Amino acid sequence: MSGTNPIILAVDDDTDSLSLLNAALTAQGYTVLVASSGQQAINILGKASPNLVLLDAMMPKMDGFTTCQLIKKHHPDLPVIFMTGLSETEHVVNGLDVGAVDYLVKPLDHQELIARVKVHINNAQLTNNTKAALDSTGQHMASIDSKGKVIWTTEQAQALIANFSSKERNHLQHWLTTAKADDQMEVQQEQNTLVISYIQEQHDGSHLIKLKAQNLKLLTQTLKLKLKITRREADVLYWVTQAKTDWEIAQILDISERTVNKHLEQVYRKLNVNNRTAATGLALNAID
Length: 288
Fold this sequence. Notes:
Layout: E1 7-11, H1 15-27, E2 31-35, H2 38-45, E3 52-56, H3 64-74, E4 80-84, H4 89-97, E5 102-105, H5 110-136, E6 140-144, E7 150-153, H6 155-162, H7 166-176, E8 184-189, E9 192-201, E10 207-215, H8 216-227, H9 231-241, H10 246-253, H11 257-271, H12 276-287
Parallel strand pairs: 1-2, 1-3, 3-4, 4-5
Antiparallel strand pairs: 6-7, 6-10, 8-9, 9-10
């Protein structure tokens, strides 16, 4: 393998199985980390960043299903392949339900194991590259199911969602039940306004959304400098771009509607326009 060797975390309470896995994977050029329990695997993941986890389903104290749930909670993009002697459909379904990407039945065919490891590492890399590309263009995306559970996110979207309070999460979950394409909701986070845009419902019933954090202070400063208007006029104009009425702007800025109207008159004059639509268009171009 070229470049840095992918790292695989193998988790099994059977030391003989771990030894065989280590030998087979090392022979293929992988770097192998081993853990003999679910808790040990969690501890390792706090210090290392493997490309894939091979996880035994049946282990004492913390079984593989519980371990997988914990792994996916903190490392949602990390692919997990179950290894187990349990081949009944209910166990296969359970493994996939908790976030595994694949399921191999013991005794393992090491050629098949290596083939699947390669596929899932490559798939994860392609997915991560796509997410990074989306983030780099400001497309902070996330997929959320009907219960509010995050299915996948780009890195920046994950960071934005992590700051949600329980109340904001509940609000988002409720909004998703009725949202349609191009609908938006806003979440205030200190100096930031987080704009959430609904994209579409996925085939699996989850909801694809886009998140964009807007720093209110920075946005109004940009309007002030680019359009050569006063700070207060910029404050009013920003909220005009958010489709707020004069009354709503007055409440937000704690000023009278009459004062809002006076500021808008000055904005129209300075921008050489005569209505809200034209002023909004110039403002949006300035902060785009």
